[in-house]
Amino acid sequence: xxxxxxxxxxxxxxxxxxxxxxxxxxxxxxxxxxxxxxxxxxxxxxxxxxxxxxxxxxxxxxxxxxxxxxxxxxxxxxxxxxxxxxxxxxxxxxxxxxxxxxxxxxxxxxxxxxxxxxxxxxxxxxxxxxxxxxxxxxxxxxxxxxxxxxxxxxxxxxxxxxxxxxxxxxxxxxxxxxxxxxxxxxxxxxxxxxxxxxxxxxxxxxxxxxxxxxxxxxxxxxxxxxxxxxxxxxxxxxxxxxxxxxxxxxxxxxxxxxxxxxxxxxxxxxxxxxxxxxxxxxxxxxxxxxxxxxxxxxxxxxxxxxxxxxxxxxxxxxxxxxxxxxxxxxxxxxxxxxxxxxxxxxxxxxxxxxxxxxxxxxxxxxxxxxxxxxxxxxxxxxxxxxxxxxxxxxxxxxxxxxxxxxxxxxxxxxxxxxxxxxxxxxxxxxxxxxxxxxxxxxxxxxxxxxxxxxxxxxxxxxxxxxxxxxxxxx
Length: 474
Ligand SMILES: [Zn+2]
Hints:
The protein has helices spanning 54-66, 161-177, 218-237, 284-291, 298-307, 313-319, 323-336, 341-350, 365-376, 382-395, 399-405, 414-427, 429-436, 444-454, 461-473; strands at 3-14, 70-71, 74-75, 78-81, 91-94, 101-110, 113-126, 130-133, 138-141, 148-154, 190-200, 210-215, 246-251, 256-262, 272-273, 280-281. The protein is α+β, with helices and mostly antiparallel strands. It folds into three domains: 3-286, no CATH class; 296-405; 414-473, Arc Repressor Mutant, subunit A.
């Protein structure tokens, strides 16, 4: 029996607001002393009331629109009740049946083919604190409690662990491009729950699934899904396909999942409308106004860089990966001209990005555009262009002054070039004879090399070749 893999994701993204979702505590708690970014509201002291952070709502709406979702004119918050030491209030404020957005679509590129993945919804909720289990007990840090999250739920449209990973990466790029989140995996700002089931090819119904909770890297997402895929494939082969939903966790060190709960012990969250927060309402015009601020998204850039600027797939992919890099590239192309797009891409990829902290260097789009203008006018060679850009990263000096300081200008001065040409011809009589007799015409490249060496690379190669040919034809 041929089986098909069915995967859906829940992606939790932490919004990069200044303050938490319902209080004014600092939202940037990464690396802070435990329990120093807390207040009576996020610690759920009796009588404290939450107030929705407007910036968090704005960022959620922007992210949802960029994920192709419709924004609902009416949505509300609900309490999701469960008891766990990382949750001071005993409930999470989330959105149950009326989320802020629904019905989205994200396009991804898998092995050269475009695929559309449905987004069921993207809703707003607050995060819990963090527990650290030690030999002597469990430590609770509530700095993260109350941090704003969007939970992005996909349709079961993904057909392989690789596709799931590609979608997760695309979502990371999208939320970064709209400025909703920095989505740094290593800081826990993006986490996944992944559901997987199998079914015989051709069938439409969905079989019981396994949900893998709390995956915190792209690698573990793919590894955990592959592990469950193998496990379920074996069960199907033995005619023992899972007969109920299960929830598992992932042990990254051991490379395997462990059972958290089966269907019988499924959680009952006893959702009910949050009484302390008013519903969220929008006018259609407000949503249109936000829509107008959504920038060009990474996959659209990837396509345009190839079609309009002639970049290769690899170049386009790399340059459309992150917002800072894409805008640096585009600003440079704007100065240099679209016909030099490929050359701009090349200098950025080969010279600028070599420095991991390129953003902290002194390079600007003007440096690169000016350097390419010098190259186009024949004043410098391609290798000198690279040298100038590398130097500008360190000093911030203008392209022209670096060219002058380092003596990188190509000599177009025919007098100096003629001296080198004459010298090389005189010193290589045998080679000259071979070329002139037609015995070995390719040796002209050897003479060319000698002349360039004499000029220490400063001679304009076009002029050298022209003069050399004239002298040899004599
Ligand atoms: Zn607080």
